[in-house]
Each structure stands twice: as structure tokens, then as C-alpha cells.
What we know:
The protein is of the alpha+beta class. The protein has a single domain, classed as Alpha-Beta Complex (Aspartate Aminotransferase, domain 1). Helix content is 33%, strand content 29%. The chain has helices at 3-16, 55-61, 92-107, and strands at 22-27, 30-35, 38-43, 49-52, 67-69, 71-72, 75-76, 81-84. The chain has a six-stranded antiparallel sheet. Strand 2 and strand 3 (38-43) form a beta hairpin. The chain is globular. The termini are far apart.
Amino acid sequence: xxxxxxxxxxxxxxxxxxxxxxxxxxxxxxxxxxxxxxxxxxxxxxxxxxxxxxxxxxxxxxxxxxxxxxxxxxxxxxxxxxxxxxxxxxxxxxxxxxxxxxxxxxxxxxxxx
Length: 113
């Protein structure tokens, strides 16, 4: 993790801090934020936000500025795993949009995320 990733983790923690059900763990080179043991988002090196959603929403969200399918090592992840560039989440309103996407997906009754 680098300084940009740590700064993003601090911002995510501040925005999600009111939710006692959210847990923070280091996973896969990120500071991951989990709900009921499932990753919501992760703060990655370079200030990139890893976002977990369902595949259908993930595919649609690729049209959002700065969003791309997540890449971990040499593997491109499925449509439900997105990387959001630091430039697309510079303000808290933009970051909150992505946190809400992840929380809405986690709350979906299908559990397909």
C-alpha cells in the first residue's frame, strides 16, 4: 500500500464509519471494507477504489468515468469487480456514489454480487 491508498482508506473509513457492521481488513494488497464478511470496497495503491457489485450493474457501470474491470496481478476480474481511478473519486460526493453502489449490491436479496 502507498500513501494514496492509505489516504483513500481514511476517506472510506470516515464515510462508512457510522456503520458498525462494516469491518476493515487487509486483503489482496488492499485495505478492504467488508459487510457480513463480503468485500464492499477496497482502497488500493495509487488511490484506486476496488468496488464489488453484481455482474449486471458492473457491466453498466463501466460507462462511468474512471471505471474499468478490476485487474489483480495478471487476472482481469469478472464484471462485478471494478477499479475506479483516483481522479474519478477526488471529492466525497463521487466517492460516496461508489460506496452506495457497493452497499446496494450487498443488500440485494439475490446475493449475486
